[in-house]
Write a structure and sequence with these properties.
2 domains, binds zinc ion, alpha+beta
């Protein structure tokens, strides 16, 4: 989207979750706000969009707001109200005519805030990639938390590919910690059954074991964890769970 070459008043036809700017489109709700956030346009406007997303995007993970606003915030929101006119119209594309809401915006700010607001209501939103931190377009129902740009330090693999791999590896590491715990649990539970361990002894072991397991899982959360450190965490967990 060429923000610099947009001329105002801007006519935008919205139908459901898609829209046209003049004859161009269809775009999906949220695409313009995302592209603006990802670009290097007016910093003040980008900040305002981020604030808007924080305030009203609470329904969309990961932007959680509790919905309460102070008197001051309410007043400042009133002062910064978004202005546009809206009517009904028909938008024709080859072979089809859509009934549309026709918005007329006098500034880029008004357009982007309305576009973002409608996107949030629909379930779309700009998101920040958990790997590279850049903004990408999140479409309703989309579950990914990574963008599909080439990841930092990579030549071809995207954040999505690198991120998915990292999540997968993390899951395997967690499973290994759980395996060590379950194996030890079986061993001590058998002792309890055979009567070589009392109920109190078993209970005390089980409490310690759960704490050790959770500690190991927390240690495995660390980013860029080395193979050596991982092996050390598993060795220690195994030792601590089998001490008695
Ligand atoms: Zn990314």
């Amino acid at each position: 989207m060429e923000f610099d070459s947009m001329t105002f008043p801007l006519s935008v036809d919205v139908s459901g979750s898609q829209y046209w700017i003049g004859d161009e489109g269809p775009y999906k709700l949220g695409m313009a706000a995302t592209e603006f956030l990802a670009g290097d346009g007016d910093a003040e406007l980008r900040e305002e969009l981020e604030g808007f997303l924080r305030s009203f995007g609470g329904v969309l993970d990961p932007f959680v707001a509790d919905g309460k606003a102070s008197e001051g915030e309410l007043r400042s929101l009133q002062e910064r109200a978004i202005r546009c006119t809206v009517g009904c119209g028909y938008h024709a594309v080859p072979g089809k005519i859509y009934l549309v809401e026709r918005y007329t915006f006098t500034s880029l700010r008004d357009f982007l805030l309305v576009e973002l607001g409608k996107a949030i209501l629909h379930g779309n939103a700009p998101r920040q990639c958990r790997l590279c931190g850049r903004w990408y377009f999140h479409e309703k129902g989309d579950r990914t938390i990574y963008c599909d740009r080439v990841a930092p330090g990579e030549t071809a693999r995207t954040c999505r590919e690198v991120g998915a791999r990292a999540v997968f590896e993390k899951k395997i590491q967690d499973e290994d910690a759980w395996k060590i715990y379950k194996r030890a649990y079986k061993k001590y539970y058998a002792r309890l059954m055979k009567g070589t361990m009392t109920q109190e002894e078993f209970k005390s072991w089980a409490d310690d074991a759960a704490a050790e397991r959770d500690k190991a899982l927390r240690q495995l959360q660390r980013e860029n964890i080395s193979e050596a450190l991982m092996a050390e965490i598993f060795r220690e967990l195994r030792e601590r769970l089998n001490r008695k």
